[in-house]
Design a protein that fits this description.
Oligomer: single chain
Structural class: alpha/beta
Strand content: 5-15%
Largest sheet: 5 strands, parallel
């Protein structure tokens, strides 16, 4: 044999022309990847464990995945699992056991008599306990060095693992990143993976974009020339950003590596070839994707402004100042502006046609979004949306919609409470036709409940092929272990041990008709292929949107423990609402609210509301500068302020209205009394005349009465004399009467005796006398 340079082994990538490949499935070989792959080809079949170490985003995992993809499936079974801060020995062992089956006795091995290739990503991530031990990696060491593990179900029983080949990847230790125990490290053949050269990066992405925008797609020559420069421009921007935007404790996610380059070209890949008509359109598309990938993840206005200027500077350096002037201004691309496609029979063939195209009029996007919001509220009686789509909110809506339309597209939305993260996600998911799911935390919610929810989502995305938006907020992290499973989904597209053996068999059975329809002509109907198709479909259709708050250090701690949360998502950092947005929100609350004011005053109140919130925001910055303490005034505070204003205004206005009614009633009574007094004055004047006549008559009558009274007095005097004489006679008669009665009382006994004697005389006594 003769020595040959590695470059002679690299085969140029040929873009397929007979079908449209998916960007996520493209793995382009480079000279560096072929070097590492050749090492794996020598070591893995000999059962020599391999460990790749390197910086973030240097294609460690990509090289191993490329090698895994090329392994003969008849000879090797393949499994990848990511480690995180909370990966326990039990999780690792259950994952390892899921890849083997019993052969004889206590010996287990990959199914079908094959060899097993087991890839551990981020092997250095598990927790180091108080004694300096990394117990998860001790089990890894045991499974590699001793070719076996102890049975978790039968204490003391040793399980031998035959025909297993191990490979791992980790970041360089230091800077807060763990190292692995030396006893584990010495088991591996260690390789340091360096950052790909610029020529290699250009080979990867340049070959893709040049192949896509070539003669076979009918693209004009001038567009092909510009497409050939896109990789150079992206690399320049990447280098500038990496040198300027360095990570700090507050900007922990300022890491720019190969993943950012990949996301830029994945966005360009979304635009159909036939829509790229000229070089201006292509450069606008490139600028838009760079803004979405690099600018959106920055945490403040100055950084975003610097990045936007850097994009324009690179654009001018690579493409010329002429294109800078033609592509300046706002630049947006969306894929939901098309009207529903209706067939000849009047039936809706496609309710949501997707065409990634430039936005020529922002008002058109706003109108279309409001239509979708009305449609969402009509179809969902619970959880209705009442969003005010001012320009800032509309931008975030378009960003979320862009990622949800990409295969394997997941996002991390970072913003303080009330920024609109969840509501905008729900609307964007509805626009994309996604089934939106959010777990409901209860006191008894645990990992088993999460697994049941995840099973349903995987089946919906994998078997039915329905896009799923899994909305997960930091308020739902009841257990840090939840993030371990989210990290696994983001990194590998599956959760170890999620489905039991019988559930796997049922899913394989359900996937068979799906494979016949969508698997393609060369699809081989085997259990492994059906399960792989299920995982591919579920990974492509399951979109995770993480809604997190930047307050405190919790987010940075979690992203350090679970690297997939940052590495495998597109970050969109929500800044405070601009003053124009605050005014628009105030208008939505106050415009139709009944106020006792002129339209000018009402409009001034709306402006004042936004200005007050902005002043408070500025005051919090001054407070931070003076006292080094954070005070957060969130959009939720602003919404509460508006609602409180309306409540207080209505209460006070109702009180004033009640007083007004009372005062009006009092005034009405006073006016009525005034009328009554006027009438009474007229009646009184007439009565005074009658009264004068009556007084005159009464005076004459009084005179007559006086004369009569004098006569009566005389008669009274004479009558008194007669009465006195009569009284005197009556007194005398009364004395005589008393004497007579006294004599009568004295005579009564004699009278009684006489009466008794008379009663005693009988007729016979008279006869005797005769």
């Amino acid at each position: 044999g003769e020595w040959a340079h590695w470059s002679s082994v690299v085969e140029p990538y040929v873009y397929p022309t007979d079908y449209e490949p998916k960007f996520a499935d493209l793995l382009i070989p480079t000279m560096d990847s072929l070097r590492y792959e050749s090492m794996l080809n020598m070591l893995v079949p000999a059962k020599k464990p391999v460990l790749f170490t390197g910086g973030a985003g240097v294609s460690k995992s990509t090289c191993i995945l490329m090698y895994m993809r090329n392994l003969d499936e008849e000879k090797f079974s393949k499994k990848m699992t990511p480690f995180s801060f909370v990966t326990s020995p039990q999780i690792y062992q259950r994952t390892l056991e899921s890849t083997v089956e019993k052969r004889q006795g206590t010996t287990f091995g990959p199914p079908g008599g094959r060899k097993g290739f087991f890839f551990i990503d981020d092997v250095s991530m598990p927790l180091i306990n108080s004694w300096g031990d990394q117990i998860t990696n001790e089990i890894v060491r045991q499974s590699i060095s001793e070719n076996g593990i102890y049975n978790l179900d039968k204490a003391g029983q040793w399980i031998t693992l035959a025909d297993m080949c191990y490979c791992a990847a980790m970041m360089h230790p230091g800077g807060g990143r763990n190292d692995v125990p030396h006893r584990l490290k010495r088991q591996f053949c260690l390789f340091n993976v360096t950052m790909p050269s610029l020529a290699a990066v250009d080979n990867i992405f340049g070959s893709i974009i040049r192949g896509r925008l070539s003669d076979h797609a009918g693209v004009p020559k001038v567009v092909q020339e510009v497409a050939g420069k896109l990789t150079e421009a992206t690399i320049q921007l990447w280098q500038k950003t990496s040198n300027k935007m360095l990570p700090t404790p507050a900007k922990f996610h300022y890491m720019f590596n190969m993943r950012e380059l990949s996301r830029v070209f994945a966005g360009i890949f979304e635009a159909p070839q036939n829509t790229v008509k000229d070089e201006v359109y292509l450069v606008k598309l490139w600028r838009h994707e760079c803004e979405r990938v690099f600018t959106d993840k920055l945490t403040n206005g100055p950084d975003k402004d610097w990045e936007s200027n850097a994009i324009l500077n690179v654009l001018g350096d690579v493409f010329g100042q002429d294109l800078v002037s033609k592509t300046s201004g706002l630049c947006y691309f969306v894929n939901f502006l098309g009207d529903p496609i209706i067939d000849d029979d009047g039936c809706v063939e496609n309710a949501r046609p997707k065409l990634y195209e430039e936005v020529l009029d922002v008002e058109q996007v706003r109108g279309k979004s409001l239509q979708f919001q009305i449609q969402h509220n009509d179809e969902n009686k619970i959880g209705k949306l009442e969003l005010v789509l001012f320009e800032y909110a509309l931008e975030h809506l378009m960003r979320i919609n862009r990622v949800l339309n990409q295969d394997r597209g997941s996002m991390m939305l970072v913003g303080v409470g009330g920024s609109g993260k969840q509501s905008l996600t729900r609307l964007a998911a509805f626009i994309c036709g996604c089934f939106t799911f959010q777990i409901v935390i209860t006191k008894s919610y645990n990992t088993n409940n999460l697994f049941e929810d995840l099973k349903a989502l995987f089946k919906t995305a994998g078997i039915k092929g329905t896009p799923v938006c899994f909305l997960f907020t930091d308020a739902e992290v009841k257990d840090e272990g939840f993030l371990e499973y989210i990290n696994q989904i983001l990194s590998t597209g599956e959760v170890s041990g999620l489905f039991a053996k019988d559930e796997v068999d049922a899913i394989i059975g359900d996937m068979r008709p799906v494979a016949k329809k969508d698997g393609g002509k060369g699809f081989i109907d085997t259990a492994d292929n059906l399960w792989r198709l299920f995982l591919q479909r579920s990974r492509a259709n399951l979109h995770i949107v993480l809604c997190m708050s930047p307050v405190g250090v919790l987010l940075s701690t979690r992203t350090r423990k679970f690297p997939g949360l940052i590495n495998c998502t597109t970050v969109d950092w929500f800044l405070p609402w601009p003053e124009s947005g605050l005014k628009n929100v105030a208008e939505s609350f106050i415009e139709k609210f009944d106020m006792a004011s002129t339209p000018e005053v009402k409009k001034a109140v709306m402006v004042h509301m936004g200005m007050v919130h902005k002043l408070v925001q500025d005051a919090t910055l001054d407070y931070l500068t003076k006292y080094r303490r954070y005070v957060y005034v969130t959009p939720k505070s602003y919404l509460s302020f508006l609602k409180s204003y309306l409540v207080v205004y209505k209460r006070e206005k109702d009180g004033v209205d009640i007083l007004k009614i009372k005062i009006d009633n009092g005034l009405e009574k006073l006016y009525q009394a005034q009328d009554d007094v006027a009438k009474m004055k007229i009646e009184l004047a007439a009565s005074e005349i009658i009264l004068a006549e009556a007084v005159k008559k009464s005076s004459e009558l009084m005179k007559e009465i006086a004369i009569s009274t004098a006569s009566a007095e005389k008669i009274k005097a004479s009558a008194k004399i007669v009465a006195d004489a009569a009284n005197e006679k009556a007194f005398v008669i009364g004395g005589e009467k008393a004497e007579v009665e006294k004599d009568l009382e004295a005579a009564k006994p004699a009278l009684a005796e006489a009466e008794d004697a008379l009663k005693a005389i009988k007729p016979a006594d008279i006869k005797n006398l005769m």
